[in-house]
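Office hours follow-up: a student asked to see two folded examples consecutively, so here they are.
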Amino acid sequence: MLKKVLLLSAVLMFSTLCASAFSWENLRDRIDNLDFPIPFKEEDNSASRREKYLKKVKEEDLKEEYGRKKLELHPNPFMTVEEYEMLSAPKDKKLEEIPVPKPEKAADMKYVPQYDYEIVRYNNPPGSPEISLNTNFKQRRQQNIQGIVSPDYTILVYPSVYYYHKENNVTCDLFVIPLEQKGNALTRIKKANVMHRDQEPILSTAKSTEEYGIFRTLTPVDFNLDGTKLLIKEKIGSNNDGIWQTNAIVYDFSTHTSYKLNEIRDAITYYWQEYKNLNLNDFRWDIYPLGFEAANPDRIAVAAFAYTGGTPVFLGSWSIDTKGERALLHSLNPENKVQISMNGLKMIRSGVVPKSIVEQEEKHNRYLDEYDEKQKKKEEKEQIEALEKELKQKLKELDKDLEFELKKDELRGKVQGSTSQNDAVEKVEEVLQNAEQKRLEKEQKAKERQEAREQRRLERKLRKNNNTQTAPSAEENQTPQNL
């Protein structure tokens, strides 16, 4: 027992001596003397790591932007919701390019006859323009009628007719299509499309559906000589017993106003009641607007007829000014016709284009399509090369910016300022300004050297061209004896 106690005491004493000898200071000294591997260099401080990280982020952004621009050259599904909504936004149809319509041809057909067209007078013979509805008009409920072109080929006016099945009513609007100002007259008329029309009609019939089976239509008759006024006839009637009444209307494009010439009907009724003792209101009669007089462009000529169940009775040739202020009787003899000017134009079919010409045009069109396809690929290649060049240039700028930022950090570390006077910041700014000035001067000199090289290259090319042009030919160098 005594031996165990003595042994334990000896162990405790030895432990105390070792603990006193192995102090914390000795432990710290030994740890400091150990050679631990350092994961980064001393110059790789937090500022340089931050600049390198920012450069990497900017490079990724530039590459992503380049890939997106490259994809945008073609419609692709890799787009954001914002880009899709932007592409899906409604566009102004009036700005879309309308090609000249071409006849459709099936893949197994080698030749399809193509109609030839020509431009003729619209109001020929005078008062003849009428609305012609298709057989399926009531099924389609709407139809656009061939319009009239102004004398200066700037606009086309056409009626749009609507059918209301429930009320069995027909109404009409008159729209204007501005024509393109490039190409020949026939091409400009062919390119006229309802997509380019003005949204609001210049004239509309009443849209009342209270009366069953009523129709109201607007038919352009003719333009005046300078194209500032348009004569229109409005027909009102019933689908059961025909036309009730025709009204003459003048639309003024300079003031955007219309005048219904009701005075001409009143003048005709008054004349036959006053001088012939005939009340036209007891009979069915109507007027036919013929157009603008050739001798008096500001007056409109009309013819009046009464219906007796057989041959219509001629009620005279009449005229009225465009404001409807003064009506005149020209003649009660139908043989004495008033000269009418024909100013408006329209396009009609004049035949069929010969097969040889059609085949030549198709061959030429194929050549143009192939040429356009090559040009499109060439432009696309140039765009991609431009994008790549832009990307490389921006990446070089990022390298220069990183180099400059690292240089700034290095300069900040070298500047030793006085802490008492706190002039370290001023010294750093001064050194940085000097470094920036040197960098700009260096870039300016490099740019001047590049411009000088380019100028010398152009001068050498110009001298070479001049020498080629002024060099005498072999025949010029021969002497008269040799000749």
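And the second, which I mentioned at the end of office hours:
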Amino acid sequence: MDGMKTPSPEELREMLEKAQKEAEAALAKLSPEERAAVERRAKEMMEKDEAERRELLEQARKLVGSPKASECPHCGAPAGRGSVCEYCGGDL
């Protein structure tokens, strides 16, 4: 980060709260149609990011080999005991 100090957890929390308040204020100024468009775009971006994350994970698996049986094949988190990952909700 080129000489920048890493924020503390408290500073990160404050930054997040400030950003949330600013986002809420900006959303409050939008018309219902504008707000719906913004929410659709945000959903599209999240879906794209998730698809890219899954693709990167799959590429990494191919390079490294199969994940351990104790890991979720979707996110790599500890698999737990159920048939669904407790972290990402993917099938185990």
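Two things to take away from it. Residues 67 and 73 are 7 Å apart (CA to CA). The mean pLDDT is 86.
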